[in-house]
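FW: tagging you since you asked about this chain on Friday. Here's the raw sequence from the shared folder, copied in full. Didn't touch anything.
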Amino acid sequence: MKKWQCIVCGFVYDEAEGLPDEGIEPGTRWEDIPDDWTCPDCGAPKDDFEMMEVE
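HL: got it, structure written out here
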């Protein structure tokens, strides 16, 4: 599982946790999130997220 961070506001999407409040189940991979999804904190498009290094 990977984590993706919004480069605009710093919000982190964790594939292992998903976003149940947004209807995204835990374990949902980044590539399976709809392309029109936007950051829940700032509204930035999916293209404004970058994969984070996971230790």
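FW: Residues 15 and 30 are 7 Å apart (CA to CA).
HL: agreed, and The mean pLDDT is 95.
FW: great, closing this out.
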